[in-house]
Amino acid sequence: MKNGLRKIFAPLLNIFENGEGNYAYKPMSRGILLAIAVLFGSLTVGLIVFTTKMAMGWGAIIPISVFSSVSLFCLIIGGLGTDRAVARVWGNR
Predict the structure, then answer these.
(1) How many CB atoms are closer than 10 A to CB 3?
(2) 13: CB partners within 8 A, 6+ apart
(3) H or E stretch including 54?
(4) Structural Rg of the chain based on CA atoms
(5) How confident is the model at residue 69 (pLDDT cuts 50, 70, 90)?
(6) Cα separation of 9 and 81, whole Å?
(7) What angle do CA 46, 86, 25 make, to 5 degrees?
(8) Which of 46, 53, 56, 75 has CA 20 to 30 A from 93's CA?
């Protein structure tokens, strides 16, 4: 299943997995990336629940789309990406 998902998200993963040379990968970086995905995902769900109860309408489209995009990005790179991809998100130092 992971290989199938990697093929679906290959255009995004290839951007971060390409490159040569050394990279500074720390195992904690992947965990932090997944934690950020969970936090932004919960922000998205909370915002959707809040806006439906308060009937705010279209005013929450931009925050919902930004939070969900960040959550999805972090989930894809943290869950499916290689060590090089995770290191490139955090920067090579």
Answers:
(1) 8
(2) 6, 76, 77, 80, 81, 82, 85
(3) helix 27-54
(4) 16
(5) very high
(6) 10
(7) 130
(8) 75
